[in-house]
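Summary: Need help interpreting a holo structure output

Steps to reproduce:
1. Submit the protein chain below together with the SMILES for adenosine-5'-triphosphate.
2. Request a joint structure prediction with the ligand placed.
3. Inspect the structure token block that comes back.

Expected: a single structure record containing both the chain and the bound molecule.
Actual: see attached output.

Input attached:
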Amino acid sequence: MLKIKDVSVSFKDHTVLDQLSLTAYEGEIIGLAAPNGTGKTTLFNVIANYLKPNEGTVVFNDQYEYKSEKDEVDIYKQLTPFPDQGDLFEELSGVDHLKLYANMWKGTSKHIKDIIKELNMESYVKNKVKTYSLGMRQRLCFGMMAAADSSIMLMDEVMNGLDVSNVALISEKLIEMKNNQKLMFVASHLLENLDLYADRVLFLKDGKIIHEHHIHDNHDTFIKVSLDPNRYNEFKQTYDLPEDHHYISDRLLCIPFSKLTLSEQTTWLERVIQFDEREFEIGTLGTLEYYEKYYHDSYIRK
Ligand SMILES: Nc1ncnc2c1ncn2[C@@H]1O[C@H](COP(=O)(O)OP(=O)(O)OP(=O)(O)O)[C@@H](O)[C@H]1O
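--- attached output ---
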């Protein structure tokens, strides 16, 4: 278990993390979704002790903190930060890198054969890294984490530069690692992909977690209607929308559905149909929709 307690980080007068707290458990994948420059890497740097927070602490297994060298050594046995592609050794092979991580954390490299096979690296892993493409390097970085097999892993942009089939491959492997009780933090801009493997996705804004999207306990359904801003205004003037409706990214009206009585559900469905909106569905909100809701402006900029 990892507890982040009231962590604040400021660079001069710029507060990046503001009294942020979080408890995370083994067997959990926690996604971090937020635009560039919001503080995801800063949070990872605090967890890995690359950066001392101005305030707050990180506690591992209710026992270890970055307070003494001994604790630090104990924490590093359990924690692997995602290797930076720039830190790979160009003259060494992929196998050399996998062995390095396996031996450093696990004390054996017997298991790396399986990792090489699972990550489809057989054809290139014996060659020197300097011959690798971006995607090959990224798969190697992920393989190094899998080889370390530590109980906590921090993955910053793990899917960077991967094609669709490799994204699927790594997503599957992440789920397998989660089933082996690993705790993984994954910062990613591939929002819909997070829904495939994360247990919860945290949205950061102004240094705080503004929403936790629990993927498996997400039973609240909405009537989701595509409406441009003019039509949305017309709809709002015609019907008294519930206060907890969402209007996301100037395009999607979401009317709470599952919490209504059957007759209220029927009424809202009739209203939507009468309004002559054929493009609607009933469903839950995913990571992409929450992202659009919280960061509409930055989403548009991209
Ligand atoms: N060493 C530093 N000195 C000054 N400012 C910093 C430093 N490190 C990070 N920052 C600032 O902190 C903010 C958060 O940066 P961070 O790298 O944590 O964002 P991020 O969410 O990981 O972004 P991205 O999606 O681009 O990786 C940014 O405004 C950045 O400029």
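--- end attachment ---

Reviewer comment: Residues 2-214 form a domain with the Rossmann fold fold (CATH 3.40.50.300). The mean pLDDT is 92.
Status: needs-info
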